[in-house]
Amino acid sequence: MTGSVTKLDETLGGRDGIGGLYGPSSEAWRLNREAMLLLGAGPRALLLQLAHPLVAAGVADHSDFRADPWRRLRATLRSYLAIVYGTTTVARAEIRRLNELHRTIVGAGYQARDPALSLWVHATLVETTIVAHDAWVEPLNRDRRARYYAETLPIGRAFGVPAGLLPADLDAFEGYVAGMLGPTGEVRVSPVARELADAVLHPPRGPVVPALAGLAPVTYAWTLWPAIGLLPDSVRIDYGLRWGLFERAVAGWLVAGWRTWRPILPPSFRHMPQALAADRRVSAQ
Fold first, then answer.
1. pLDDT tens per residue across span 9-21
2. Burial class (CB in 10 A: 0-12, 13-18, 19+), 284
3. Distance between CA atoms of 138 and 141, rounded to whole angstroms?
4. DSSP 197
5. Residue-wise DSSP of 219-274
6. How far apart are the first and last CA of the chain?
7. How far apart are alpha carbons 87 and 169 in whole angstroms?
8. For residue 202, which phi and psi values (nearest 5 degrees)?
């Protein structure tokens, strides 16, 4: 274990400080703080991950995702935000914890620590951050996209993706994602993924608000339509998700409403608590 810790620390630069692995001047700190973006884009990233048949198999075999998809979404957000906004010590500890957890996820034809699968999961988080910001806030210029992607490279390596497999720059990354989604790519929605997607898009309310346990999914499923709208067309079609004029109109209305309120709402309401805590931590230095 000591050797793996040392290797991880070297991959992440061996730095230690309250600014964390990214720091307040990074694109990662700027792009991941909006609560609406993360909560809306979270289902999109999950659906992209599950669209890889081996990822879907691992999730189905090693979690209670069908009964409580909220647990995975909460855990994913908590880990992601700890890595982005935590101190260097906290972020490195979270990466080590996830790597140890993933070593136990092994099944027929897959293992979570497979570098190719780790790369796809990593890529969905990076790409979804860019796509959501483009669609719901403002388009990112090429320089900002490139800076953000470069910031994520050490994290990808820390999760076991070797430098030779990790796309070296933004152009290579975009080519990788396009290839994975293309006609000969590995991303193909399986029946297991469709079953899990139903849990993502029609999650039970009971685990969140017990009093709403009996609420029919049709009464709230529309709140996730903006996330469906962010999916690549090919993936949305593979999942068999409806995306007609009505769904587009409702999704557009929800996003437009958030855009209208966003300049008015204070950062203490709009931003993720982890981002606000990181701001206070750095300001108090």
1. 444 544 458 889 9
2. exposed
3. 9
4. H
5. GTGGGGHHHHHHS-HHHHHHHT---SHHHHHHHHHHHHHHHHHTTTS-HHHHB-HH
6. 33
7. 26
8. -135, 60
